[in-house]
Amino acid sequence: MMAEARDSRPALEVPVKCMKSQEVEIQNACAANTTEEPMPLHCAKARGGGEPQGGCISTVIPGWFSQVRVKSPGAATNLHYFNNPMWPGEAHSLQVEKILFEGKSEYQDLMVFQSVTHGKVLVLDKMIQLTEKDECAYQEMIAHLPLCSILSPKKVLVVGGGDGGVLREICRHSSVEQIDICEIDEMVINVSKQFFPNVAVGYDDPRVRLHIGDGTAFLRECLAGIYDAIIVDSTDPVGPAQELFGKPFYETVSRALRPGGVVISQAESLWLHMHVIQAIVTACRQTFKGSVHYAWTSVPSYPSGTIGFVICSSEGPPVDFKNPVNPIEEQKAATKLRGPLKFYNSEVHAAAFALPTFVKQALDDINL
Questions:
Q1: Distance between CA atoms of 109 and 127, rounded to whole angstroms?
Q2: Hey, what's the torsion of the CAs at 186, 187, 190, 194, to 10 degrees?
Q3: For residue 71, what pLDDT band results from cuts at 50, 70 and 90?
Q4: pLDDT tens, 242-281?
């Protein structure tokens, strides 16, 4: 039986036609706003200061999930949509059938809603984290890009990943003997088990050991050289995930990897965040003495429809990330319990490292 999520309201079923009160709320926010300045990269809420003035307002505008920032005071009909300061000037909205859950944990706001086109959707701090339709593209790639690049991985650590999707994919690898997952927000786990059982199914595997707490602190306390692979499944670099994108964290990760071990971390969109990607790659090249690569995949529900990963190896036996040596398709147990793969295959693996010219140039321009 799943533990009841802390500080949460009961599951809600709000038909689209009954959302007029939320529309009035948006109109009131419009009238109150007087600022014309763009929102900074790290909004006030991420720093613990509440909602920024003028609003990062995330709501259902009747029948649609989106995030808005209103630039024209008092003009309730002139809404300007921004999908977060991480991607100003853009928005991706999903039509809502009903809201299933709203709650607030110690760390973030949570929402689950049933969408018209993407199934159920998990939202953390006003940002879409996964949808039932396309979660496979992210979960399969972030798990199998590293694990298919080394022979017989045995011990794997997941930092973040509370929804359980990465666990589900790691569990396909029969060589893996131990999977540690360190998730700071227990409510994310509970909500995922309740509303996304096909994603959170990885928690049922006896090889999984769950640790509730800070991933950085966990890594500092673990033995050196203990893990074959570490998967950092984080949200964007704001709020509780911010420290997972800096050199001190990567140094802690490097210490925990065996020689020739591998790490992969969510690393933003090549269309929206090249400056962030350059900073991440720079820190990783300074830290990991094996190899450092940027790879990417398509996730339609994410801003720009793409998401990237930085994937690195520690000093030791060389790792050729572009040519998988441990193909998941050849492992008979891979689909026995978790069903067939929907997105990943060896061809997609290799293609993930084919970078557009502007990305190659930006990464080549990095001076260490």
A1: 10
A2: -160
A3: very low
A4: 565 678 899 999 999 999 999 999 999 999 989 989 999 9
Determine the 3-state secondary structure of 113 from DSSP: strand
- Residue 61 CA to residue 309 CA, distance in Å, equals 32
Residue 341, classified by CB atoms within 10 Å of its CB into exposed (0-12), middle (13-18) or buried (19+), is middle
Contact 143, 169 (CB under 8 A): yes
Which CB contacts under 8 angstroms, 24+ apart, belong to 29-35? 29/55, 29/57, 29/70, 30/70, 30/72, 30/73, 30/74, 30/75, 30/76, 30/78, 30/79, 31/73, 31/74, 31/76, 32/73, 33/70, 33/71, 33/73, 34/73
Q: Are 70 and 55 in contact (CB under 8 A)?
A: yes
The structure tokens listed for 316 are 């030791």
For residue 205, list its beta bridge partners. Answer: none
Residue 40, burial from CB neighbour count under 10 angstroms (0-12, 13-18, 19+) = exposed
Antiparallel, parallel or unpaired: β 257-266 and 227-233: parallel
- Give residue for tokens 């269309």: 271
Residue 365 is given by DSSP the state T
Specify the pTM. 0.80
The residues assigned a catalytic role are 233
